[in-house]
Every structure is written in structure tokens, then in C-alpha cells.
Amino acid sequence: MKKPCIARLAMALSASAFVASFAFAAGAEPAAKTAQQSKMSTCNADAAGKKGDERKAFMKTCLSAKAEPVSVEKPMTAQQEKMKTCNADAAGKKGDERKTFMKSCLSDKPMAPVAMTQQQKMKACNADAAGKKGDDRKTFMKTCLSAKS
Q1: Long-range contacts, 102-108 (Cβ 8 Å, 24+)
Q2: Spatial separation of the C-alpha atoms in residues 126 and 129, rounded to whole Å
Q3: pLDDT (tens digit per residue) in 64-75
Q4: Which of 3, 70, 125, 132 is the most buried (most CB within 10 A)?
């Protein structure tokens, strides 16, 4: 039972070898070298005369070296210049203050006055309400605190 199976396997292998050799002999040209293959050829040529660990180290650095990118300095656009200037001017500002400043700086509009926080508003209204008592003070504080600033 094993002999017919082996015979079929041998026949299939010889048939595939025949087809492969025929396709190769038919004049199929090898594909163009890839970038990695070209690099390997160049490094091999440069490594001529080196042996052992010296060659191994050379090939490793040669094959892992990246091509030097050609850098072309492009002039900054007007928006990039503006961003650079605004970033420099915003030094020391943080959080919402920086965000508001950058928005104003980049939009060419004059910066709107920063709204007072609730705590600052309470402090200012308390100072203005000095000397008022009772319902008069209560009414004043209500209008003062609800006023938009």
C-alpha cells in the first residue's frame, strides 16, 4: 500500500521539476534588482579583502546605513512665521490664558478682555457694596454678580 503512494509522490516531484526547468530554460529573465539587492551588491564589493569578524561588522553597518536624505530648506509660510512669533510671545502663559492668547494672536483680531472669574467678581462686588446693609446690599450684590463682564 505504501509503494503506490511513494510512486505517485516521486512522479509528481519529477513532473514539477520538469515544468520548472522548462519555464526557466524558456528564457525567463530575472527580475530587476530591488533596492536591498542593489545595496547588498554594493556592500559586497566594498567589503572585498575583509574577512571574518571585520567583514561581518562592515556588512552590518553598510546594510543598516540609511541613505542620506536630501534636505531642501523650504521657506516658512506666513502662517508658520505667525505661529512661531505667537509661540514666542506666549511664553509663560498656561492653560486657558495661553489658549485665548494664541487664538487672538493667530486670528489678527485684537485680544478681548479676559472675563473675571466668579471669585474675582465676588471680591469686586463686595468692595463696591461697602457701607450697604440689608436688602439694599442684597439687591446690589444680586445685580452686580449677575452683570456680564
Answers
A1: 106/82
A2: 5
A3: 876 555 556 788
A4: 125
Place of cell 514539477: 16
Residues 55 and 44: their CA atoms lie apart, in Å, by 9
Alpha helices in 26-114 (DSSP H): 35-46, 52-64, 78-89, 95-107
What is the DSSP-derived secondary structure letter of residue 48? T
Contact 105, 89 (CB under 8 A): yes
pLDDT in tens, 96-140: 888 888 888 888 666 556 677 888 888 989 999 989 999 999 999
The average confidence (pLDDT) of the chain is: 79
Q: Please tell me the number of Cα atoms within 13 Å of 100 on its side-chain side.
A: 11
CA distances from 148 to 66, 132, 143 (A): 61, 22, 10
Which of 111, 102, 100, 104 minimizes the C-alpha distance to 83?
A: 102
Angle among Cα 88, 89, 91 to the nearest 5 degrees reads 70
Q: Which pTM value belongs to this model?
A: 0.28
